[in-house]
Each structure stands twice: as structure tokens, then as C-alpha cells.
## 1
Amino acid sequence: MPAEHETQTSPIGLLEELDEPGPLVGILVGSESDLEAMDPALAELRERGISHELKVLSAHRNPRGVAEYASTAQLRGVRVIIAGAGMAAALPGVVAAYSDLPVIGVPLRSSKSVGGGLDALLAIAQMPPGVPVACVSVDGSRNAAILAARILAQGGGYPQQPSLESNE
Ligand code: RP5
């Protein structure tokens, strides 16, 4: 059985994983130091029987890895991505830039945070128009998992109409 958590997956490793069917929910964190804060999300998804994976991929330290993951997740069958990060928390936004999947950002408080996680909250919530990220509360990973479950429960059927989308 594959480990639930892998550290710093390389782009080549990610390409190899393309052959394997992905889980419904992909969870990313920006650092090993973020892992504990995601435990409530893992517990919630486990309890609900929703398949998931957890990877450490930093938007700043491994941007190529994040791009590879985000741009291939949908092909692997992933339907929602939860991304948790602290400080200048670019991870959820970068994932949303590379994927059409719904992205739920979890602002995390770290020992280096400013304002108890306000830095990450603003970084995740203040996305530019056209690149949406849903944002839960600081350290709110359980809510991220519940929201992911609700998104999954909606099924498909809504036709995409890119021409109606505005980036202004
Ligand atoms: C962010 O910087 C991470 O998401 C983490 O919350 C914070 C600190 O990272 P480490 O220095 O502990 O790796 O990118």
C-alpha cells in the first residue's frame, strides 16, 4: 500500500504516477512543518471513506513540482484539491493557476507566521479575478475536507462556458 504522505515528489515521479488512478481528493502542503495541521482533514476524509493523497510540495521551493501535480491531477481522476500553506501562502493560488479543479486553500499558522496566520489568510483569500480559491479559516483543515465532500456530492452536469467567464 502506498504511503499516504510522500515528501517533495519530483516531477519525474509525478509523471510516473500518471499511470496510476488518482484519489478523489488531493491534499498538498507547503512544508513538512504543515503536516500536523492537516490531520483533521485526513481524519474527516477517512471517516467519510473518501480516497485521498497527501503530498509536500512547496510553491516557492519546488514550483515545477507544484505545476506538474496541478496540471496532471484532473487526468488522474482527482476532483478536488485542498492546499494548505503558511506565511506567503502561494500554494493554493499556484495550484488554481494550473488546474480547473476546485481548490480549497487552508491558511496555516506556523512558528514564523505574522499575525497568527493572517499573512497566509490574506495570501490565500486575495486571489485575482479569474483564478478562484475557496478559503477556509486559519488552521481550518477539517472544514476544507467537509467542503471537499460537499463538492464531490454534487456530481457533474454543469456545462462549462468559458466564453461567459470574465477576468475583470
Ligand atoms: C510555507 O512556509 C509553508 O507552508 C510553511 O507553513 C512555512 C514555513 O515553512 P518551513 O520553513 O517550516 O519549511 O511555505
Note: Confidence is low (pLDDT under 50) at residues 1-7.
## 2
Amino acid sequence: MLRKDFLWGGATAANQFEGGWNEDGKGPSVSDMCTGGTKTTSKWITSTIEEDRHYPSHEASDFYHHYKEDIALLGEMGYKCFRLSIAWSRIFPTGMEEEPNEKGLQFYDNVFDECKKYGIEPLVTISHYEMPYALAVKYNGWHSRETIDHFVRYAKTILKRYSGKVKYWITFNELNCTQMLLGDVVSSSMVRDFSGPIDQIKRTEQERYQALHHQLIASALVVAWAHKEYPAYKIGNMIAFVAAYPSSCNPKDILFAQQYMQNYDWYCNDVQIKGEYPYYVHKFLEEKGVSLPIKEGDDLILKEGTVDFTALSYYMSVCVGTEGEADDIGGNLIGGRKNPYLKASDWGWQIDPVGIRYALNAVYDRYRIPVMVVENGLGAYDQVEEGAIHDPYRIDYMREHIRQMKLAVQDGVDLMGYTCWGCIDLVSATTGEMRKRYGQIYVDKHDDGSGTMNRIRKDSFFWYQKVIASNGEDLA
Ligand code: BGP
């Protein structure tokens, strides 16, 4: 049985959804400098906006002008929770101003007021894969410690402003992606020196873990401050959970998978939930030649800034091992090997509903604090047929994952809620495509930038409406 107050809903991110990239005083963010790509060709980052290129975040799904209609549709589906992020550069256009942009703040006031009309609880991600471009250029993103102060000023501004309207917060989206392939853009380090395909950005391990340390400190400072000022807030951390299965029962593979998960799944969580770097990182970082830029007092900052709940995205699992060729699968910033027991999505993501039960048990077993699934879903091609979208593939994916999630609750996991990814179609984070759709609500917008922006309810809209109304009992 799920909690009576289970937070059913969906999730979005400002840079993939909002558009209005230069309206009402908003400054360009790093993602506004990224062009579209495909599943086989990388997105580019350019240092100026080039006329002949398409930048999907500029208009995205135009939530900036459709928020009333969009939130009404979420209300119609029965949503209890809407996860969204705030665009940092809408509040501080270059990231370095002393005073915030009032029009930017006003926009989110309007959004939260609209949510309230439908009894929808906002869950706000303070930083979801973006930062003001000017700040990234000046400080080399999270590579520099100075970025922490600018982030903390931004975070305090919004935590103060929305104190009567928002209760649930997440500091950073998928923080563990800083260690992974596209983390280079995510943490916005290196972009000042770089123009070209983003898969060509090559940071060293030192740069990655340094950027991560600064984000961990920034997150802890914000959490500690918010706890003191606003005790009613519930603040979580978030990682992209990688269920990494050993590719054989060779003991070397078992150990390899364990170490892989220590790095990708437990590193950030251990720091943000337990309040200190775990024992295993020291040898591991030494082997990589990384020395963390730890300053005096950082230990205490981490100790005081632990979170109230932990959130994760879950899309897929991977196999990892030591032998043979690594037949890398495509994936959400994640490499890995094929699993012969699983089928993959059109984008090569291995579909593994049982993995979500495994993930939830693994996380809850380790931390014993409430857990929330804040992203899950199937990116797929949709066809409009006579004004309707029949998406049984999406319903199947969600049904099987929700079923396994309920089994995890029966196992004893304290699960707060489930917000599926991209509830209204939006731009893909990894490829920049519109055609990779996750929503229960279709947006008539295409990769070449054309489209009416009309919203259409898909079959999954009506299915999810029933799921929510029955608190997950009716999955038929
Ligand atoms: C997560 C990100 C999201 C989202 C999702 C799906 O990693 O937090 O921003 O985009 O993955 O990925 P994609 O859009 O590439 O299909």
C-alpha cells in the first residue's frame, strides 16, 4: 500500500521545457549555447549564438507562455506533485549580480500560484543541468570555488522568496553525473575554452572531482542554511541511479560492479546523506591521481548540510565487468554492457523494471531516510493519428515500473512519491531532440523548430489519471 499522501506527478527542467530564453531579463545559460543533436551526432556548444544553428532550449516547449494551460492539464490528470527547476539565469542573468531579476522571480510566483489552484505540491530543483553562461565563462563553472558563493546567493534568494509556496526542494539534479561523460557540460567547467561537439570536451579526472567537491560544499551550505531559517522545508539530494550488474559470476566482476557503484551511486549519496566522504574514496582518488581541493572547515560544512530525503532518477540498468569487449550501450550519460535478458528502447536504454525495486531497496537499506523516484519513463517516437496519440509502449513501461516500485514498498522501503520524467514533451537532455518524447501530454513541436505548440492528451494521460485516482491500485 502506498502512503495516503503519496506524491504522484511528473517532472521537468527549465532549460528543456521553459523556452523564453532571453525574455524579461533572463540571461543565457550554458544550455542556451547548446545546439540540437541526434542519437548518433553530438550536440554542439558554441561561444556565441550562431544564426544558422538551432538551439532547442530557446523556445523548448514554451512553458513560459503556456504554464497556465499546462498546469491545468496536470491538475486534470490528478497530479499531486510537479517537479520543476528554476532557471538560475532568469533570477541572476549573469550569475554575478547582487540583486535578483524581479520579473524572473515573479514568473515562478505565478507558476506556484497556479499549482496551488489545483492542489499540486511543487518540488523544486535548484540546479538542473544549467548555470548562467557568463558565470561559467568567468569562473570555469564548478571548477572554481568562487562559484559556490554565487550559487549560495541564488539559492538563498529563491528559498526566501518562495517560503510560503514551496515545501520540497532538491539542490542539484543528478549530481553524480559530474563524474560521467556529459558531466563536463553539466558542471559547466571547460565550456569557456571550448566550442564544438560536446562529446569532444575532455576534462581530466582532477577537474571532474574538483567540480564535484565544490557542488557538494555548495549543496551542504544551502541545506544547512535552509534548515536553520525554514525548518519546515524538506530538502533532498538526487543522483541518477545506475543499477550496475556484474556481467558474470567471476569474482572479479562482482568486485568491479561493487566499486563501480561506490563511485557512481554511493559517492555523492554518502557525502550528502551521511555528511562525510566515505572511506573508499581515498584510495580510489589516489589511484586516479586526484587530490580534492578540501579547505579547512569543509568537513564541518558537509556534516551540517545533510539532506532530509534522497531522490533518484531511474531509467535503466547496465552490466559491467572485466572481461571481453565492452559492447557499450547508448545511455543516459552512462556507458555499460548489454544485458541479454533485457530489451532496449529506441535510444538503446535497457528497460529493466525489476531494477527499480533493486535500486529502491539498495538505497533505503543503506540510508534509512525517505526515498523519492523523481524521474522515470520511456523516451519514444510518438505518432499523431487523427488527433490522437496511442502510446501503449509508454503505458507498459510505466505500469511495470510502478508495479515493481509498489513491491519495493511492500519490501519495506519508505517511498514518498513518483514523478515521471517529461510529463509534458520536452527537449532531450542528452541529444537535444524533441522527437524523443516522454510525456503524457504531446507538444506539437519538432526538431527543426516548427510546430504549433498545441498540447494533446495521449492515451497514457488517461491511464495515468486512473493510476493516480486509485493511488496506484488500478494499473490496468
Ligand atoms: C536525466 C535528466 C533529465 C532528462 C532525462 C532523460 O538524466 O535529469 O534532464 O532529460 O535524463 O534523458 P534524455 O532527455 O536524454 O532522454
Note: Residues 13, 16, 129, 173-174, 240, 313, 332, 375, 379, 421, 428-431, 436 surround 6-O-phosphono-beta-D-galactopyranose (CB under 6 Å).
